[in-house]
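Bumping my old thread because nobody answered last time. Still need a sequence for this structure:
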């Protein structure tokens, strides 16, 4: 029998009667707590949420005895929509239609598997209030485009459906100005160029994207070498400006890897290059800083678009964050080329 038939999120108590003696524990609890499925009961058992005399019982096949009492504390279900959280934001611009954020590296843009909260969306909901809820969908309110977790820089979010529609069309039509600074291993053969390819899921690793011969989506990235560091014949690293003409997942990271010059610090697409033997303290610092850079060296430093109601172009620039600036400063200790 069960003392209560309340929903998940509360502590429940069930006592075994004579007719139920000898039943499997999961069968007994599913019968006693009829609003919780047997598969859910098994999950709760595995998670240590079922107690007998204050001791966790995890064996679903445990045979119950008459008079035994079990308590089940099921965690409340996750909210259907993201909730606001007090997370600091670096607001570059804001009005009734939109907000521009300078996103730090390490901040995930929206909730997903493995990151249910603590995201930019949670911060935006807290900052903008209830008006943001549901704009463009409950799961990702206000999100028009994304930056990878460990990419820093400028991002715009919509605060109403009109702005969401307008910005969405601009991104779809590739009329948004987006420029990134990237620090890569080596130096491309050509000082500037256009990388064109089809990008899709890597068939051998679904978490990564790759350049495909067939299928995928068209992707175009323009690049130019801003500065190179190290030996003139074989530079150690380069600072590159990239401009997106399309916006595919991991586009810059995939394209620069395809070019043969992956981003410094990229855990998925880049591999650390073996540094030459350091001859000076400056060289030792540069090589160590590059080898130990903790994220992909990518920063979204320009964002420009047509305002949805002011009918004028807004354009923003972001300074390098401290880690990116420190990487470039260390590399500038090498002989410039």
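Sorry it took so long. Here it is:
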């Amino acid at each position: 029998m069960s003392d209560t038939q309340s929903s998940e999120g509360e502590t429940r108590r069930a006592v075994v009667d004579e007719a139920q003696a000898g039943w499997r524990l999961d069968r007994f609890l599913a019968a006693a707590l009829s609003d919780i499925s047997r598969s859910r009961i098994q999950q709760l058992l595995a998670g240590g949420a079922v107690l007998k005399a204050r001791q966790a019982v995890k064996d679903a096949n445990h045979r119950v005895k008459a008079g035994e009492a079990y308590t089940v504390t099921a965690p409340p279900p996750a909210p259907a929509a993201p909730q606001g959280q007090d997370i600091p934001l670096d607001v570059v611009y804001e009005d009734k239609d939109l907000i521009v954020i300078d996103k730090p590296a390490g901040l995930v843009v929206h909730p997903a598997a493995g990151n249910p909260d603590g995201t930019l969306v949670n911060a935006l909901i807290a900052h903008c209030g209830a008006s943001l809820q549901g704009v463009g969908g409950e799961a990702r309110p206000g999100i028009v485009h994304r930056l990878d977790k460990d990419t820093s820089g400028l991002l715009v979010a919509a605060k109403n459906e009109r702005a969401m529609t307008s910005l969405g069309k601009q991104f779809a039509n590739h009329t948004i100005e987006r420029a990134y600074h990237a620090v890569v291993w080596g130096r491309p053969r050509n000082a500037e160029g256009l990388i064109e390819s089809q990008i899709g899921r890597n068939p051998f690793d679904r978490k990564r994207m790759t350049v495909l011969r067939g299928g995928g989506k068209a992707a175009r990235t323009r690049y130019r070498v801003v500065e190179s560091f190290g030996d003139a014949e074989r530079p150690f690293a380069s600072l590159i400006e990239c401009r997106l003409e399309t916006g595919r997942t991991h586009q810059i990271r995939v394209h620069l890897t395809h070019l043969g010059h992956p981003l410094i610090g990229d855990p998925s697409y880049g591999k650390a290059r073996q540094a030459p033997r350091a001859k000076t303290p400056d060289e030792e610092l540069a090589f160590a800083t590059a080898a130990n850079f903790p994220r992909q060296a990518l920063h979204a430093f320009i964002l420009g678009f047509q305002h949805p109601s002011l009918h004028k172009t807004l354009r923003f620039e972001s300074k390098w964050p401290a880690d990116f600036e420190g990487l470039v400063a260390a590399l500038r200790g090498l002989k410039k080329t």
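DSSP finds seven helices and 14 strands in the chain. Let me know if any region looks off to you.
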